[in-house]
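Researcher: Please translate sequence to structure tokens.
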Amino acid sequence: MPKISIIIPTLNSIGFIKSCLDSVFDQDYQDFEVIIVDNGSKDNTVSFIRENYPQVILIENKENLGACKAKNQGIEVSRGKWVLALDCDVILEKDFLNKIVRFIEESESSTGMFQPKILKDDKKTIYSCGIYLSKLMRFYDIGKGKISNGQFNIPKYIFGACSAATLYRKKALLSIQEKTGFFDERFFFLAEDVDVAWRMGQKGWKAVFVQSAVCYHTGNSSEFSRQKRQYLCWRNRMMFMAKHKIKKRLGMVCYDALRFVWLMLTNPLFRSQFGQKKI
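Model: Translation complete:
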């Protein structure tokens, strides 16, 4: 059995998948399997993978079922003790797996998530060093947009991990499985990792930032528009708070009211989609 199952959702990813897979198969550490779940790509992503990476386990969906569903499909067939969720536009440093495996072997058994240092593709700007959840229940990527100059070089416990690149303990994922999946499929895309972090925290699992494991992320490879992302961030945040019965304090009510008005005024998609379940 492989120690790590690497799960990569794809959607029209021909411009990214080669660099991603080459960085995976070029690792010094090789005790892993790769599972790709394609969400109905219309380009030649699937045929390219099949022809050039026959060792990959390939699951093909006829339509875009969402990143959450794709990751769940991958987890369901995975055999590893650990699950590495990767976006298709992530490139791993050559020693990424060696360093993160060395870290997990020395970590507490109660740690369920390991967050690597994710830099943007310029290799100097931070994309995420983990997820921070504010008092207003807004979620942010720690360090996002800052230049990496050593200020995030210490491992530490965090609220949760950004699923663009996260190593999960399979046992922890199994402990939070719901009818809607390991990743709640109702979220479709965005904030699903916040929900996973919350549920793992409720079960006593910890999340830790691993500063030595570094990867690079382009971002928005699925080419979702800004309007769609804004709508999904709003909808999924509301869903998250309702799901976990989070009571709104005065500050949260004021913030949500102001943001709702702003989105209604500036985002035509938000106006047209508000109250609907699908985008």
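Researcher: Any highlights?
Model: The mean pLDDT is 92.
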